UniProtKB/TrEMBL annotation:
Residues 27-171 form the Thioredoxin domain. Transmembrane segments: none annotated. It is found in: Cell envelope. Coiled coil: none annotated. Keywords: Cytochrome c-type biogenesis, Disulfide bond, Redox-active center. This is Thioredoxin family protein. The keyword Disulfide bond applies. It comes from the Bacteria. InterPro entries: Thioredoxin-like_fold, Thioredoxin-like_sf, Thioredoxin_domain, Thioredoxin_ResA/DsbE_sf.
Length: 171
């Protein structure tokens, strides 16, 4: 009986604690998602649309992360390798830290100050994250030169589809 109860509890808790690939892999962004506001390191407000506009014409990798996220921190060395291997593309880091102080602390502690960082001051549940089905971090997306989504869902920087997508876009 104890084993059955333990298995049942693991199943219940496991449902809420795993990444599940979205049923629809989107290729673009909604108007509401593009209007989502974030803050840069200086506290200046910027929208997703403005971020995409800054990188138009380039391949862009979006990395969702947070300093409190063990999986994100474990992935950080491989994310850095991906960035190092692809110096000709852009990387943007979107933080889900819970406060501006936490965001600032994470950038310092994990040596992210030299990267392009933004923070969701509105928290996890917002128009952009809801639209892209953000259910776990880390999460990676590849955006093409026209600001369309080329790779919608990757949960590790080692996902071979990330590099394959980048290579295909650069041909």
């Amino acid at each position: 009986m104890k084993k059955l109860l333990l298995l049942l509890m693991m199943g219940i808790f496991g449902l809420g604690c795993s990444q599940q690939t979205p049923k629809v892999l989107k290729k673009g962004f909604s108007k509401e998602a593009l209007a989502q506001k974030l803050e840069d390191e200086d506290g200046k407000t910027v929208t997703i649309q403005q971020i995409l506009d800054q990188h138009k014409g380039k391949v862009l990798v979006i990395d969702f992360w947070a300093g409190w996220c063990r999986d994100c921190l474990n992935a950080l060395p491989k994310a850095r390798e991906l960035e190092e291997k692809n110096k000709n593309i852009d990387f943007v880091f979107l933080s889900l830290d819970r406060s501006k102080e936490g965001f600032d602390r994470s950038l310092e502690k994990f040596e992210m100050k030299d990267k392009e960082n933004y923070w969701f001051s509105s928290g996890w549940k917002n128009d952009f994250n809801n639209y892209v089905d953000l259910n776990w971090i880390p999460r990676y997306m590849v955006i093409d030169q026209k600001s369309a989504i080329a790779k919608y869902y990757a949960i590790t920087p080692e996902d071979p589809e990330i590099q394959a997508t980048i290579d295909k876009l650069l041909k």
